[in-house]
Design brief:
The protein is mainly alpha-helical. Helices cover 68% and strands 4% of the residues. A hairpin with a 4-residue loop joins β1 and β2.
């Protein structure tokens, strides 16, 4: 069992190999280059989300990415990436650099997954000559932004520390993978708030609280992964996973739907597991594993 006394103090933060701009101008230039490219990628991801993805009636009717849930998630990922890029430009290091690359990979993967049904829909619309439909550049712009974010991993790395122990490198990877997992789950939860508010105020508020909590914990752990923040991550992630499993197996308590039926043991009907639900569950499982791993390493280190 993990002793709170051993982990209540701050777990030694992984030195992110922050550059000293005064003593290392080359490192400072690298940092600004990576931060600038990452910020551009994040802004492009957001811009592509709000631009039209498909049009009909010769452009008189357009459908933007943010008209749907998936487009809003893509915009949220771009917003998070842009914030990380600004942090990197100011005082970044290995951690923020990896987060930018992970954000780019996520945007490319998610955007590519969205592109398949978009092409299928366009093929169906194009079969009707009266609709005069065509693909618009919105999704392509977002994918280009994701490509810029991923490209930050391949820029010059004079700012990164060459001498790192294997233990420190492992801790670095675990910390920033945990930050990425929390950020992705948080963005998805926040994006789902409007949909669940229409079903129930309690569900909407629950999704908002979970999403903001996960994004907040990601920011705290990025800065300094304390034992308290890791334990909160475990509790929030496990609670969210239990709620997800209950929703798709036995159903949630009926009071969450605005009914008092749960007072008599009534449950809402079980839902089918959506793609976004599967993605959220997967990253929360990853978050639980990584948070527990970091806590165990803190316990095993000599006091």
């Amino acid at each position: 069992m993990i002793s709170p006394a051993r982990t209540s103090a701050s777990i030694p933060t992984i030195p992110a190999a922050r550059e000293d701009s005064a003593s290392n101008p080359a490192a400072s230039a690298d940092r600004r280059l990576v931060g600038g490219l990452g910020a551009a990628g994040g802004v492009l991801a957001i811009t592509g989300s709000v631009l039209p993805w498909v049009s009909m009636d010769a452009g008189l009717q357009t459908i933007a990415g943010t008209d749907g849930l998936n487009g809003r998630i893509l915009a949220g990922l771009g917003f998070v990436a842009a914030l990380v890029a600004m942090v990197h430009a100011a005082r970044g290091g290995q951690g923020t650099r990896w987060l930018l690359g992970i954000a780019g990979f996520t945007i490319l993967g998610f955007g590519g997954w969205l592109g398949i049904p978009l092409l299928q829909t366009e093929a169906i619309l194009a079969a009707d000559p009266l609709l005069v439909s065509r693909l618009e550049p919105g999704l392509a712009v977002s994918l280009f932004g994701g490509s810029l974010l991923l490209a930050t991993l391949f820029l010059p790395a004079r700012s990164l520390a060459a001498a790192e122990t294997p233990e420190r490198r492992a801790r670095t990877a675990a910390q920033f993978m945990l930050v990425a997992a929390l950020a992705i789950a948080g963005v998805i939860h926040v994006a789902l708030v409007p949909e669940h508010l229409r079903e129930s105020i309690a569900l909407g508020v629950g999704f908002l609280g979970a999403g903001l909590g996960q994004v907040g914990l990601a920011a705290i752990i990025l800065r300094n992964p304390t034992g308290a923040s890791l334990r909160l991550t475990l509790m929030l992630s496990i609670f969210s996973l239990v709620a997800l499993v209950a929703a798709v197996t036995v159903g949630l308590p009926a009071f969450l739907d605005g009914s008092m039926g749960s007072m008599n043991g009534v449950l809402l009907p079980a839902e089918s597991l959506s793609d976004l639900g599967a993605i959220t569950g997967a990253v929360e499982v990853i978050a639980v594993v990584l948070a527990f791993r970091l806590l165990r390493r803190a316990q095993q280190r000599p006091a």
